[in-house]
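#random but structural
TW: two for the price of one
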Amino acid sequence: MFQHYSLLIIGGGPIGLACALAAKHAGIDYLILEKGCLTNSLYNYPMNMTFFSTSERLEIGGIPFVSNNVKSTRPEALEYYRRVTLSNELNIRLQEEVLTVDREDAHYRLRSNRHTYTATNIIVATGFYDIPIYLGVPGEELPKVVHYYKEAHFYAMQKVIVVGASNSSVDAALETWRKGADVTMVVRKDKIGDRVKYWVKPDMENRIKEGSIKVYFNSHVRNIREREVDIETPYGIETIANDYVIALTGYQPNFDFLRRIGVQLSNDAVLQPTYNTDTMESNLPNVYLAGVVVGGMNTHLWFIENSRIHAEKIIQAIIAKRG
């Protein structure tokens, strides 16, 4: 016999936890399956990252999040979500990846890397931070190229290229420069991103203006070699010496997984999943989407603070179907 649950939640990030809290409050038996550690995406954020949102906007289940800072930090968020999980005794299994989801009459069968389950309802809350958007250039496979940035000390006194102009790129450029790296940014547009945190953007622009951090705007990395990188600029190809490339060009949801389980995606570059905005139910009956995954490639549209409501919508929809 397989273990059966009324609700199985795929993803143990903040929104997956919010769904579990709502399910528990409603008396629905549930299980969270998380392929990595608790709040795996947050764990993989840069060590010194500061959230754009204040702590109350990161709260789930009405549980207070008290921060020592105006803006919450990664360590504070990890501690908050860990305490929420433990104090509420949420039913979660970590390091367990869902591999397949198959519909069988009135329920679904889910096979993980450890067990097989059946469930009446499924919530997919898998986020978007697991799959980088690659540059697609020769040399990207070299060990010197990374698509995640943790902390700056490793890059001290090295020649570093940071690709991108988002919050993560700007943070990496400033932090590595302050640790003594020779930093060059490669930006495909003509300026630093408009969504860069308002207290960080002037710092970045001033470092560029004074020449402390070099930048190539309207430019692309074209070739990466052991000790050099070719950059295509509006004025031709520039070749510069380089030790490491931090390519922070964004991340995307696991579209292959969504397709495999049968969720329909839009036929454009956005690849937005089909779902009902009132209930969050996908084109598959009793399969719901929650969190940033609902935006497809528009990963900047949904955050913890504006997708917490998905949990309540879904649980209300499940209760309504029960009659």
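TW: number two ↓
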Amino acid sequence: MIGPILTIVVPCYNEEEVLPETSKQLSAVLTHLIDDYLISRDSKILFVDDGSKDRTWAFIEKEMAKNPFVKGIKLARNAGHQNALLAGLETAAAQSDCVVSIDADLQDDVQVIRTFVEKYRDGFDVVYGVRDKRETDTFFKRTTAEGFYRFMNKIGIHLIPNHADFRLMSKRALDELFKYKETNLFLRGLIPLVGFPSTKVFYDRKERFAGESKYPLKKMLAFAFDGITSFSITPIRFVTMIGFLAVIISALAGGYAIFQELAGHTESGWTSLIISIWFVGGLQLLAVGIIGEYIGKIYREVKRRPRYAIEVDAFSNQKQDAFMVGK
């Protein structure tokens, strides 16, 4: 029995400090899985350089020369984490039976990959790595993350709570994922839509091994907003509700003003008038901004620009054997 060909996809952006240890740990994982006949000897690690400005690609080239497990692709520019991850998945899927995606920072437990493969062999097409605890996060990050998942669920976007991009996907699940052609990419929301049998594997997340986080607060907020606006029109409906509510309040206020006028109780109302103008103006700007965000996404979608460009592909020239196992 020949095990499945596994490729571990690792998107990288300015990760030269952590990559030596990442390569070492992932290579050890593949070696143990091969020795235990759980995966094919053709299994690989695919590093995706997302237009790094440091020596990330130089390290990948050096590692490819000495480590038979390591392959790499270099994007022509920085395409963003989600697009870089998709580039790795699309490249790896052509010659793999299953693909694991993991960030380069080693915060995800690489030993859990063994459990992913075992679940895959049990018949699951998607295996989600889910954080058991968030003790390594700050109080602010922990509470905002939990609030984000609750909010997404309430507006009809069903995500896997405490799951990032650490997962295994089978080839048929990947092929189905690639049918989704949107430019505004939010993989955490797309993959549950794919369907197929799935399961969760819980693990404890670690501290970042080296280097700095590539997701500061500004990027995290932008990522969350992209996820919301890519999958739900609830914010626009909310703006509509606010508009109706403002009309009702205005009608009541107008009726009250007319009554006061008829009763002869009118007084100068400069303060209330200015407050009302600023309040309504703020609502209008908020509404225009939210609608503009959706129009911007439509603008990006209709142009159908490529989501990434590969400058160097050191993976696709391999030849792989077919996966043969009773599933």
